[in-house]
Amino acid sequence: MTTVIDKDVRQPSRKPSRWAAPPRPVWEEKPSTAGVAGKGLVLGLACLAIVFPLWIVIVTSLSSRRTIDEAGGLVMIPKDITFVAYQELLSGGQVTRAALVSVGITLVGTLFSMTVSVLCAYGLSRTGSLGHRWILMLLLATMFFSAGLIPTYLLVQSLGLTDSYLALILPSAISVFNILVLRGFFMGISQELIDSARIDGAGDFRILRQIVMPLSRAVLAVITLFYAVGYWSAWFNASLYLNDQDMMPLQNVMIQLVQKQEAPVGLGQAIKTGELSGLAVQMAVMVMALLPVAVLSPFVQRHFKKGMLTGAVKG
Amino acid sequence: MSHSTVPRSRAEADTTEKTPVASDGATGPRRKGPPSGKLKLGLRLRRDRVLLLMTLPAVLLVLLFNYLPILGNVVAFQEYDPYLSDNGIVSILNSPWVGLENFQRIFEDSAFWNAVQNTLVLFVLQLVLYFPVPILLALLINSVVRPRVRAVSQAILYLPHFFSWVLVVAVFQQLFGGAGILSQLLRENGYDGLNIMTNPDTFAFLITAQSVWKDAGWGIIVFLAALASVNPDLYEAAAMDGAGRWRRMWHVTLPALRPVIALLLVLRVGDALTVGFEQILLQRDYVGPGAAEVLDTFVWWNGVRNQDFGYAAAAGLVKGVISLGLVLAANKVAHLMGEQGVYKK
Questions:
Q1: Which residues contact A108 (CB under 8 A, 6 or more apart)?
Q2: What is the DSSP annotation of A11-71?
Q3: B185 touches chain A (CB under 8 A)
Q4: Which of A12, A32, A158, A244 has an alpha carbon within 20 to 30 A of A120's alpha carbon?
């Protein structure tokens, strides 16, 4: 009797962990050592090609002037870790301001984009509603043509958006592709659920907020990331529509600092005299630009496939 | 509470066309209403007003920023003078018409043809060197059995897709620029430094390499999804028939990928005249327009920089019209191949 119970108790611990390799089917041949090694090598090299440059950038940004001078430029092996570069950049001045601008644009823009997109996607997900097909066509058609850079530029100027942060948000606020992904997901939610909520007296806004959105967390996370990355990475609209250097977001400051090799305003003196290396400052700006993205995207990663496919295929 | 009186549902819309007689038994959650197609317009408007209201912001944005600027392409037929007024639309109304003069100038401009040539060279190079990489990577990752290895390598490979082009170009500069790690290593070993970033001869390869670094990892998602949907019984059956590892890949795996590959290829060709605008614009100054000018940067340079709006708009219009034709043709081909839900990116 007791042995049976013991068996039952032990059962869960014998279950293979999530990370263990699944058992090989009997018909599959045992992988050769050379094959496994070759695969590992190629995959390892591919990953290294991505990680290695980032490693150098991060390590150099954390290095002191002496380490950088000894290495003759970029540093591969960290020696003495120092946060001087970040302290300088974040103690006010051009880069601090640019980072704040970027954070602000990203937050406000993403919130705006998500609100408009989710509303539109839900409005279009109840097929059979009035004009649903026409509105969908109107949106879809924009994926096949673009009005062109010059007319868009003239329009944004005519609207008086030049030198305003609205010029960085409004023209690129929605992506039709993202709306289609959301719509595809919303359409997959069982109609019975929505009907029963309607019978209980819920309106469309309430259904969207209390039923559809909680069921779509995965795709909402993915699309939020897409929009946020879009705003965080954008620089071209700022270079077109902003004239005031003080308004520039982080990416545009990075172009000046890293690509054109200009010293950040207010930091020139510290670089010339102090222990701070100009190279470390440049690398620190790059780290600031990549950090939010690199930290956030792995959390959303497992939803990518689902999010990308449900929307794109259904249309 | 904005509660609609007429039931509206996907099930209803799909089924009522076939079964127009609705049961009016008032009980049960799947009660069907009259076919929505036959409802009075006013009634449907009243029923769906909330849904229409929800789509309104997006529709307005699209009309304003995607459709309205199309009208602005008339400056391609004008001697547009931005200084006529401080409002672009007023300036358009007051600018003199010049007919096709701008287009004539374009076709006689060797810089334009240089941009066309660079665009096509980059397109072909990307097709040959970039396009196969995600497929090969997906096959590789798919053959890895250990979930942890798969998850970690996917996380790393996806990452650069989310970096901005500014960052990617900056990273490449740190690797291959005049003060980059490659030059540094060469100098330490007694060679001359090397600056790949400013070499016009290898610019096209550099651009392609950057695209591979940034987006090849992201591109594997579609292929992995296609591979995941393959029925494992097919592999077993093939193995029973004596097919080895490579034959199984050839006869089972690759056929599963074929529709996706064909579709993406078609769409890519439809998009041929658009090659990495931001990416190239960021590096245009390093190598000069001779090697780095593509159609998009040609429009940017002449319009935004030289304020020759009519000329730039004409070039943009030429590119836009040819692109639209290509996209529609590519879409047609995709439909012919039996693929639906074809959307550009």
A1: A165, A169
A2: HHHHSPPTTSPPPPPTTSPPPPHHHHHHHHHHHHHHHHHHHHHHHHHHHHHTB-HHHHHHH
A3: no
A4: A158
Most confident of the ranges A299-313, B96-110, B186-200: B96-110
pLDDT of residue A275: 64
For the segment A36-53, the average pLDDT, to the nearest whole number, is: 93
User: Angle formed by the axes of helices A94-125 and B49-62, to 10°?
Assistant: 140
Residue pLDDT, tens place only, A160-179: 999 999 999 999 999 999 99
Tokens 């879409």 belong to B331
Distance from CA of B121 to the nearest CA of A (A): 22
The strand pairing partners of A63, in sequence order, are A81
Which residue of chain A has the CA closest to B177?
A259
Nearest chain B CA: its distance from A2 CA (Å): 36
- Distances in Å between the alpha carbon of B183 and those of A260, A263, A268? 18, 22, 26
Written out in words, the top-level CATH class of the domain with range A93-312 is: mainly alpha
Asked if the Cβ–Cβ distance from A309 to B225 is below 8 Å, we say yes
Work out whether the CA dihedral B132, B164, B225, B139 comes out positive or negative: positive
* DSSP for residue B98: -
Annotate B111-138 with DSSP letters as a single string.
Answer: HHHHHHHHHHHHHHHIIIIITHHHHHHH
Confirm whether pTM is higher than 0.90.
no
ipTM of the complex: 0.87
DSSP annotation of A216 reads T
Count of beta carbons in the 10 Å neighbourhood of residue A181? 25
What gap in Å lies between CA B219 and CA B205, rounded to an integer? 19
Tell whether B179 is within 8 A of chain A (Cβ): yes
User: What does A155-188 look like in DSSP terms, one character per residue?
Assistant: HHHHTT-TTSTHHHHSTTS--HHHHHHHHHHHHT
Summarised one tens digit per residue, pLDDT across range B112-157 is: 999 999 999 999 999 999 999 999 999 999 988 888 888 899 999 9
Q: What is the CATH superfamily name and number for domain B100-337? A: MetI-like (1.10.3720.10)
Two tokens at B120?
A: 């096509």
CA B189 to chain A, closest CA, distance in angstroms equals: 13
DSSP type of residue B301? I
Stated as kind and residue range, the H or E segment containing B256 is: helix B254-270
Mark yes or no for CB contact B217/A50 under 8 Å.
yes
Q: State how far Cα B134 lies from the chain centre.
A: 16
Query: What tens digit of pLDDT does each residue of B255-306 get?
Result: 989 888 888 888 888 888 988 899 999 999 888 888 899 999 999 999 999 9
Say how far apart CA B316 and CA A243 lie, in whole Å: 24
Domain residue extents for chain A: 39-81, 93-312
